Sequence to fold (422 residues):
Amino acid sequence: MMLSRFQEALEDTQQAVRLDDSFIKGHLREGKCHLSLGNAMAACRCFQKVIEFEPSNTQAQQELGCAKSVLEYERMAESDFEKRDFRKVVFCMDRALEFAPACHRFKILKAECLALLGRYPEAQSVASDILRMDSTNADALYVRGLCLYYEDCIDKAVQFFVQALRMAPDHEKARLACRNAKALKSKKDEGNAAFKDGNYEFACLLYTDALAIDPNNIKTNAKLYCNRGTVNAKLKKLEQAIEDCTNAIKLDETYIKAYLRRAQCYMDTEQYDEAVRDYEKVYQTEKTKEHKHLLKTAQMELKKSKRKDYYKILGIDKNASEDEIKKAYRKRALLHHPDRHSSATPEVQKEEEKKFKEVGEAFTVLSDPKKKARYDSGQDLDEDGFNMGDFDANNIFKAFFGGPGGFSFEASGPGNFFFQFG
Fold:
């Protein structure tokens, strides 16, 4: 026992009490060996045997209390495991191991729960310690495989699961984990192949199927969500792509690829505030030139989005030609000209006058190549001498339509107008 060789000590003490059933120290030591090995029920029987011989034996009473505590921790751990409250299981096993330091069963349960909590290095350490003492321990092999599986090293994980099944063909957990690992890898690989072939709809279905295989595999599922987000982006389903990337980030807050994918989707949907936040997160983590450029681009687009959208005001695309800009101005200027709305309510007149001025402002900027270039690049137009305080939309209108007398609005009935050139 002093050498912590509890199994050998147990065999010796059992032999001793077989020779002399009234050997009190023998029963006590047998109970301690059972307890150290995690056999709390057997330990209780040994200590109760001592108490039958010596009811006032305080050592046996204390040891019996310890054994009963271990039984209670086992009961609690079993209940908590079924509830998937793995932190409580780890707590119970830590307490139980204080009384049963040589119990492989408790260590394995603790290691399994550590793996399920994502604490892989700790779980690996516990399993490795057991395998150093017993390289054929199927439970320890299973836990090693489980850690690798949850760290998305699926091929290596399968090797450990197969080895565990060789040691214990009826190991149900290893069999289920092996099946899930193979199915997950197969679906993921099929999805990747479909994506490379440009079959995005099919790839989306395959990634969805893969996500349903094992909700506990956080790292692999994070990658699957990000992959499906990439597919949805290709399919122009940008809101779904954003949702997938968000789910990936919830599973793995350090997943840079998911942040980058979501940020690009935010850019494509003109959600620049969100894009800037994601790119800031990426740049804080990985300060590369590429990430710095992406952040600056998003910040510039955010700044531009806070200004008036001259393209939207004229109802044209950002790649509109000079003729298209002129046609758009002609249409919008005539639509919002104050004379056209002279019989409207004061509120409508005020709103239309505002729109008329905005149309003139938009045309002034977009029809001037220099101003347009500065506007498109997000630079301040004031630096180019463009002072809105001096802007007169009527002068722009008159210059465009050829000066005074170039046109007139005439009523053709209540609420109806047409214009004619002089």
The longest helix spans residues 58-82.
